[in-house]
Design goal:
Layout (H helix, E strand, L loop, with lengths): L5 H14 L7 H10 L11 H7 L1 H20 L3 H15 L3 H11 L12 H24 L4
């Protein structure tokens, strides 16, 4: 499959960044959003509005590139920052923190956040960091008043 012309791809990326990603707080939230645009059966990214404005191929490639970029940013962030971003993400979804932590530990839903083009070493590093962040948050919840 041929790649989208540079200017069309750049326009789609800029559109995605300005209209959607700029409204999301933190790289983890962006990563969750971008991974949710990927069909888990086919690995294809889908975004109706972006595809309508820039074409299917440009939309898919823009989503894939932005997903990889957000993943890389989060991969190289410090553990305290990751813990903060995870706490902020959980707080932003309005779910019970203990339940989300339990679910993330058991189901390991964070694995779907990894781009399909990711190498295994980076994927393992990311998974380890997420597990550490989950434990750090779990400890802070258990030690807070009322728990």
């Amino acid at each position: 499959m041929r790649s989208v012309a540079g200017s069309a791809l750049e326009a789609a990326i800029q559109d995605l960044e300005n209209r959607t990603l700029a409204n999301l707080s933190g790289e983890l939230t962006k990563l969750v959003y971008l991974s949710s645009t990927r069909d888990y059966n086919t690995g294809e990214y889908q975004h109706a509005g972006l595809a309508q404005r820039h074409g299917d191929r440009a939309a898919r490639e823009a989503l894939a590139q932005c997903h990889q970029t957000a993943f890389r940013e989060l991969l190289y962030t410090s553990l305290p920052s990751l813990v903060s971003q995870l706490a902020a993400y959980i707080d932003s979804i309005g779910a019970d923190r203990d339940q989300v932590l339990k679910s993330w530990r058991q189901l390991q839903a964070y694995r779907v956040l990894i781009p399909s083009s990711c190498d295994s070493l980076s994927a393992d590093f990311f998974i380890t960091n997420i597990r550490i962040a989950l434990e750090a948050l779990g400890c802070s919840v258990e030690q807070s008043p009322g728990h």
